[in-house]
Design brief:
Layout: H1 3-18, H2 21-37, H3 47-66, H4 80-94, H5 98-109, H6 114-120, H7 125-143
């Protein structure tokens, strides 16, 4: 695994968890420091899951400390159609559980494989695939669209 390739995904994940660029940069760096310091916990083939677990715990700590909104409006462009879509999606995402929202972020924002996500939640790929389909259907129903994802 090349750590440089993973940096972008971990940073993006942290941005959606914390909503703050500076915090996300700090957390991403801290994630990789802890990852490198704790090589005794590395399991071959599960390095990404370990990185995400570290990042998740650091984000939870930071959000608790800062009480930040994980879906910050500052990331929306000035295009009015884009703003409406963003607000609609934000409302729909806010109605999901924390776990469902995190799964959607990992799958569709970071492009993580179902295997990686299943590993994070200690479930089978088959079960996680069904869960992702159910969550995306829930979002489609809330948004009244078929082409959300």
């Amino acid at each position: 695994m090349e750590l440089e390739k993973e940096y972008k995904n971990i940073f993006q994940y942290c941005m959606y968890r914390t909503g703050n660029k500076e915090d996300s940069e700090d957390i991403t760096q801290e994630t990789f420091l802890r990852y490198l310091q704790h090589t005794e916990y590395h399991i071959k083939g599960q390095e990404r899951q370990f990185l995400y677990k570290i990042a998740k715990n650091l984000c939870i700590d930071r959000v608790r400390k800062n009480c930040a909104d994980p879906l910050d409006e500052t990331r929306v462009s000035d295009n009015s159609e884009n703003v409406v879509q963003h607000v609609s999606l934000r409302i729909a995402l806010s109605e999901l559980s924390d776990e469902e929202r995190e799964i959607i972020i990992l799958r569709y924002l970071n492009g993580e494989s179902i295997s990686v996500i299943a590993g994070l939640y200690n479930t089978s790929r088959f079960s996680m695939g069904r869960k992702i389909r159910a969550i995306t259907q829930k979002l489609r129903n809330k948004l009244g669209k078929e082409d959300v994802f």
